[in-house]
Specification:
A five-stranded parallel β-sheet has the order 2-6-1-7-8, sandwiched between helices. A three-stranded antiparallel β-sheet has the order 3-4-5, covered by helices on one side. It has one domain: P-loop containing nucleotide triphosphate hydrolases (Rossmann fold, 3-Layer(aba) Sandwich), CATH 3.40.50. 49% of the residues lie in helices and 14% in strands. The protein is an alpha/beta fold. Its main location: cytoplasm. It comes from Saccharothrix espanaensis (strain ATCC 51144 / DSM 44229 / JCM 9112 / NBRC 15066 / NRRL 15764). It catalyses: dCMP + ATP = dCDP + ADP; CMP + ATP = CDP + ADP.
Amino acid sequence: MGHGELRGVVALDGPSGTGKSSAARRLAATLGARYLDTGAMYRAVTLAVLRAGVDPTDAERVAEVARTARLEQGDDPERSTTAVDGVDVGAEIRGPEVTLAVSPVSAVPEVRELLVARQREIIAAALERAGGIVVEGRDIGTVVVPDAGLKVYLTADAQARAQRRTRQDHASGRASTVDATLADVRRRDTYDSTRAVSPLRPAEDAVELDTTALDLAGVLAALVDLVERRGLRVVAVGG
């Protein structure tokens, strides 16, 4: 696989419903880069915890599941895949049971330590193969890749985020309402921003981008502009 136009790492952080995943995938595809959804990795561990019948708040047993589960995360922006013990779980990890349990599982220090190490391995391999990668999550710019060439923290009004999440659920065949999703968004915001390990917050040198009034095309345009301003886009000259 040849190198794309992106050189280095673009770190996209922010809470749920800001358009982070869609924008990250589209940006990676536009620039011929790889893509890493770190949230899917935490959801995959959460699914393994639930399948094992473990209480998500039992840190010791959750850590044991995280150590033993075989997790595989793809980096293709056109088809991001997540597997646990060799079985694709891409649809299952988006279900309501996992969504309710992922915050306490993600707060377990050993889970974060294990997954951050794995994420750094994936990033290093992607840089070697493609030259650039777009990584999205909640602690990319602060913990996973603190030296990323571009760090962007996406924000949006909670109501707008709930509406987006609800539309995504309906499009995927999952039943939800805006009110229920709004409550979940606020719950996760509080949990993720107050946890002791790697709390959700913008890196000191991150560019904050409010996506409330932007559609996907608008967010993508803003991100491409930031990439170009940082000199991270290398366009091959033909001839």
